[in-house]
Structure formats: structure tokens, C-alpha cells
Amino acid sequence: MAAVTSDWREHAPLRRARPPQVRGAVARPRLLALLRSARVVGVVAPAGYGKTTALAAHLPELGRACWLTLDADDADPQVFVAGLAVAVAGLPGGEAPGALLDAGASPRRVAARVADVLDAAGALLVLDEAQQLSGPLTGGVLHELLGGRVALLSRTPLTSPELTRLELTGDYVRVSAPDLAFTRDEFAELLAAHGVTAGDAEVRLAHAVTEGWPIAARFLAQAAAQGRVRLAALGNLDGGEPQLGTLFAYLAQEVLGPLDPGLRALLTRSSVFEELTPELLEGVLDEARAGTLLGALASGGTFLTRTGDTYRAHPLLRAHLRGLLAPGEGRGIAARGAAYFERTGRPRRALAAHLQAGNTGRAAELLAEYGGRWLDQGRVTLVERSLAPLPERDWTPALHALAGDALRLSSRYAEALEAYGRAGPLARALGEAQVALDTVQPDLAWEPLDTAEVLATGAQAARVQRMRAENYLNAGDPARALALHPDLALGARYALRSGRLQDALALSLDAARGEAGGARAAQNHREGLLLASFLHAVLGQPGEAARRAREGLAEGERLESRFVRSLALARLGHAEVTAGRGDEARAAYEASLALAQDVVPRLQVEPRLGLAYLDARAGLPGDAAGQEARALARAGGDRYVMGLTRLTAALGRLHGGDPAGALPGLRAAHEVFGTCGDAFGTAAAALALYAATGQEEDAPGAARALSAFPFLLARRSLLSPAPERAARAALLARLAAHTPDAAAGWLPVARALGYGRLPTPGEVPGVDVRVQVLGRVSVTRGGQAAREWGRARARDLLALLAVHEGGLAREAAQEALFPNADPQVGERNFRVTLHALGQVLEEGVTSGTFLERGDWLRLRPGPDLGIDLFGARAHLSAPPGTPGRAEALLALPAGLADSDLEAVRSEAQRYAALLPEALASEADHALHAARPDLAARLADRALTLDPAHEPAARALMRAHHARANPAAAARTYASLRAALAELGLTPLPETETLHRALAGQEW
Are 596 and 735 in contact, with CB atoms under 8 Å apart? Predict the structure, then answer.
């Protein structure tokens, strides 16, 4: 290959080495994570997908970067490397490629030096319009260049052996058009950045219109901000005169470009149809070469996308092209298409074509015939959009009933009831009853069910009977429900409401398997994922409860159902309560309540009962009573949910320290659940009643409850009588003492709480007692400071016992605390000190529970007594990579509390040496596990404790290198040298070798 001539700078104008200026960009963390995910990134998408904008807008977050926009001349390797030399000139060492060019070096050698410059500087090179490098001449140059960090932006797919190799090693990642497309949330942020206030429905419609196409989304945001478009008035692009067809004409012109006239004509005439096949175009447009022409359009990467044998154009492009058809031409093509679709048995496509052709009468007939089937398949939007263009003359009572069903399945209940009002008498009654069933408002269902029972015959009569049975179940009368329809016993909701929780969970999870993805209608309160979430919370499994709630929330967003989203957030609130995260629970409940407004009153019950619990626990009785009253007022006659509301609000009062205030609600809940036949609700209320009263007369009911549902004490459940482990342990001990005959089967509960046997009331304090000797000496009970120490030396004795994990002789402890005292005086002082320590540690429990006395003294850690130094030792001695060790080490205090005791000072020195060592070893493990960020945190913490710790410094240098930050690695080395110099030392040879290697020096 020829060498580059000395006038190489003429081939590389500076303007192409500057990134474009971007205005109005929004943060896109999802896309940024992809751009950071590999050393080499290929961003491949057609025109208008924002490749250049995405990279230019995120350059600050991508670190040090340089830019080069290519053109056709860069197919010449000499021109290409000249541009590279200009692009990297501003980097440290960036003059080297230019010097090589001046010396007449080959393009490959120049490209290799550019890669070296990028690597040394930790910089990213962005090559825009990289499709210009697809020729054979630049292959070797690109091979050398890809040794550095590079982003390749291209309109066409990039293929080369080097990219294939890098992809296999994980050094190359592809970012495609779907990755660049705006998500709905990102589109909402884009609109907000342009000052456009848009509701959820408007964002959904605007996103559907643009399908996230970045250039279209940005243009729409600008047009909305300027008042040229109203988002709420965006038309359906598949019918009528689309509002955006002309507004986006310039986009179509850019995309179409110099397209072959024959292909453009075919694309224009076929724009009538949403999906294209060769057979359709042959049968309707008489195009014999349809398959070949469609393939040619799809291969362009912009005009059509292909899925199997079907082709599809972007809705905006179709809208623009339909506007180019002559008057009447589009309707004629649509009419022929409708006949074709009816001949080939595709009623949905035939319906759409009839609507476009203006044959609304036939469209109404098809909709009446097939609409119910489509709703059963979850095609709610299809039915709604098909009904919208029908003129009033074509509407029949059956279509009004169909509209009511579609609106009901979209959770638009008020509109659904209005539509049912125009249907036939039976359809109206069935629709009104179904709305009441869907929203769990049994009081509203009885009257329309009575009407439907009179009018229905045959299969409809059987349907009415099942609906009546479900309404009995909703009302809290499962016995009458089963009498009418025994098969209800096989469902998850009956299992829940009768207290068979494990059966209910299995059934709800089985129902949930078919929910995620796919076309379906929202099932609202019947959603399996959300029922499973509630059951996990009740069973004391908050992690699973939160996971199911978030999965349900994602489904609600996919289904565009406010009902499902609101209920999912309420269930997420229950999960957060069960996990002990009150602030997160309140946020979820409030978000749920906000979504529930204007949907249906019943939807407000769960967030309000959750807020009633939180307010009561926080000591806000007035607020709690208000939330409880509003929840009960919206229960709609559902006795089960009324019992749940009373129980949850009462538990809030009980957990907040007001057992007397909790009693009325607990007794009411116990009565309601008993009437409903819910064994679990009855048991939860009985156990909470005993916790509130402590009376022996309430013990038998509580004992039966615990035997039936041991998890209520074994772990924290949404409906446990006490949230804290220690309080549940105290309740177990007291109940076992009151009912010794029943207690024999509770050993698994005791073990789950941390005990080897059933504890007695004198052995459990009811709160967690924690001893701290790291940083300072203290004792806390339930998170609060313990009582006054009485004697100052009691703190020293506690520290002394803490550093002697196995204990020490009484005489040795006395000598350590009172070394120069008269033996009798020392003995007396030590006895008083030991008593004072016992008073602090063992308040509320039998003497000797936590502090072993006698000739040998020892702290007795256990489920109720924790000692921070004991836990720290366990983390320090654990092998690197032990789950949880890294975060635990990062949280450990720097050292022990100051002390004048020799044993404590010796332990402090040992601890001060072990902690940096453990942090450094854990950092090494994190590096080997490809977690450089964690390694940097661990090593940095070790160097904070010991600036001269060389293993930690080496780990931090390697972590900075892995994160492409050589400057930080150099600073770490310099700081280490300075710290060692203060000690009269120099870095070890292995540290020097590492520094030279990372700095790119010869060694």
C-alpha cells in the first residue's frame, strides 16, 4: 500500500473532527448502558434513528472522546488515517500519528498508533457514517484501529472478520434500531423537555404513532410545543385522513430519497394495507413481481421491515404515502383488498379494509359477528378502533353491548355502563352485573343479576348462575357460592378466602404462567401475578411479593390498564410493609391511590388500608381513622375486604404501641372473618388479640391459630401480630407458657426465630439487644440507648468481655479493671461493676441469660444479643467472595473504641491490621469477577485506613485501568509513593512493574 503524502492535512478538514452540537436531548440511561457495555460498539440503524444524536448527547458520560465524521473519500485508506490523525490530535500523545504521516508511514501503522493513543488516554473514538468503510481497501486499517475504544455509527450492517472475533470475545456489542427507539417513558421525558404537558393516554398514542422513531418523536415534540399538533387529537393512522400524514411529509421525503419510481409506486399503492404479502399484492394490485419488489424494498433497511413472509412499513410513512394517492384510488384498492381478505378467511383484515373503503355497513356486520371472539383473545384496542369510525346509522344494540364489553375490559367503567344502557335488556343487565363483578362491588350486582335471571335462557341462564355464585364469593359468603357453583372451589380466590393459602398460591402462580406477554385483556383483580404477590406478602415472603408486584405492574403498563397498575402498586406497598420499608410502602400506596382516582371507588380500598396501617403505626390516629373509614366506605359490600381493612388498621395501632386502641378493630375483624368462613383471617385476628391483651383467656384461640399458621410468628408476615423478630419471640414464649399442651409442636417456630428450644418468658427481652465496641462502647435495646450504666468501669468490662470471645477468668478481669487496688476493695468494686453491667445488658430477662457469671465470665450471644466485634471477626476471616462479605467490610467502622485496657488495645491493633488486608483481598476477588467498580470501592476504603497499603493500591490501580481511567491509576500510584516515603520506604518491585505496564512504558 502506498505511503501517505506530506500534504495529508488537506484530506482532513477540522470540521469533520468536531462532534455535532445537540440541543434538547434527554437522558437515556438504558441506551447509555449499552454504549458502555463493550470496548467496541456498532450502532447500526437507518436514517432518522438518532445515531449521531445519541452519541453526541452522551459524550460527557462516556469519558474522554474524539470524533470523526466520514464521507465517501474515506474509502481511501490514506484519506481515512489523515482524518484519524486530526481527530486524536488533542489527546495526550495525539501528535504521534501526525508525525508518522509526516514521515511517510503506512496507513496500517498510523491506525495502530491511533489505537495506542486511544488506549493510553482511555479515550473513545466515534466514527460517524462508518458505512463508508465497507470497501476492501480499509479492512486492514480498521483491523489495527479496533485495538482501541471505538464506536462505529452506520446506516448499513457492518461485517468484518475483526468485528466477528471481537464479538466472540465480548469486546464488541451491536446497538440496533429497536435499542435507539424511544421507550414510552423516554418519549414522555422528551415531551416534558419541550415543555409539553401530556397525560398517560396522550403519551401512549403519540408513542404508538411514531413507534419511538427518534427523528419522528423529536419532530412531534417540537410540533406539539409550537401548538401545531394536539396530542389528544392524533388520529388513527389506519383509517380516515390522518392528522400527521402531511405533518411528517418531510420525514418521508428523507427516507424515500431517490427511490426507483416503480418501487415508489408500489410502496404508495400498497400503503392502504398495514401488512403486505406477495399474494396480497398479486391478487389486489395485479403485481406479478410482488415478491421480488417487496424483498428489494425490505433490503433497503428503511422502507419495509420483514417478519417471516409479511412486510410492514412505518405508520408515518404509510400515512404520508396514502396522502399521495389520487381521490378515490385508495378506497378502490381497499375495497378490492376487503374482498380478497374475505375470500381468504381473514375477517380482521377485511374489516379494516372495508372501513378504509367506506363500506361501513359490511364492517359493522363483521364486527358484530367476530367482535366478541376478538375480545376473548384480548384484542380490545382492535374492537375499540373498529367501532370508532362507524356512523350512527350502522350501530345496533349488539354493537352497543360489544362497545360496553370493550370499555369494561379497558377499565373505563362509567363509559361501559353508558354503552350497556343502549344495548338490549339482557345484554344491559349482564353488562352491569359484570362491571360489579369485575370491580368487586357485590352490592351493585344483585339487581342486574335478578333482571338477567328472568330474561336468560339456555347457556345464558347458566352464565347468570355462575355470576351469582361469584358475587356471593365477592360478598364474603363462600358457602352459598359453592352451593350454586361447586367448581369455584377449584379457583385461587376461593382458596384465599377460605384460608387455604398454599393452595391459593399454587393456583395463582399457575394462572400467572399465561399472563406475561401475548394479546389478552386485563383481568383486573383476577390477575394471577397480583394475587400471588398478595399471598407472598401474607406468607411472609416480601422479596417474592415485590417481584410479582413489579411483574404485574409491567403487565399493567403493557396492557395500558390503570386498574392493574394501581392494584400492582398497592400490592408492592404490601410487600414493602412486610419487608419493613415504611417510606417505600407509603410511596407505593400513594401512587396506587393516585392511579385509582376516577377508575372505580373499590380500587381505593387496598392503598387506603395500607395507609391506615402506616398512619396508625406512626402514631397518627386521626389520619389512620380517616383512611380506614374511607376504605370501608368503598368496600362495596365485600365482607372479606372489610375484615382485612379492620385487621390491617388495628395491626397498625398494635404495632405503634396502642394495644387498647387496636382491640375494637381486632374483635371486629375476628367476627367478620369468622362469618366469612376464612380460617386464616380468623387465626390472624385471634393471634393479634392475644398479643394485644396478653390474657390467658385469649391464649387457646391464639394457640390454635399458631398451630395452623406457624409462619405468623416464624417470620414477618403482612398480618403478623408483631413485626420485630424479638417481639414475636416474646409472644411465642408467653403463649407457650399459657398453653403448654399445644406448645409441643412449635419447636420449628422457635428454631426459625433462632432458638434451639422453646424459650421461656424470662429468656427473651422482647427487643433486640446490641453490643457495640467498634468505634464506641454502647448497648442498645430495640434501637434505643440502654439504661444508665451506673458505673463507668462497666463499659470497660463490656469491652474486655467482647475482645475475649470465649470469656476469661473473673480474677483476670478484676485485675485488668482494678490493677493496683487492695484485693478486698478491688473485689467489691468489681462486684458492683459486674452488677451494673448485668443491669444494662439483662433488663427484662433472667440474670445470667446474656452474661455468664461465676469464676468464668463470658458474654452469651444469641438471637436476642448481638455483639458487633463478633460479627466483624466472622467477616474478616471469611474467604474472599463470600456472599455479603464485600458490603459488610465496607460498612465496618475503622477501629475499636479507645480504651486504657491492654487487651482491648491489642485487639484494636489486630483489627486495624486485618481490616485493610480483608478489603484488599476482597478487591482482588472483585477484579477477577469483572466487577471493577466494587473493587475500586473496596481498595479505596483500605487506602483510607492505611494509605501505604500496597496490595490495596495495586488493586485500585488495576480497577482504574479496567474502567479506562489511566489518570486515576497514576494518581493512586503517586499517593502510594508519597505515603511510603513518609515511612522511609519505596514501592515494591511488583508495584513498580504494574505502574509501568499500566502507563504503557517499556519494561
Answer: no
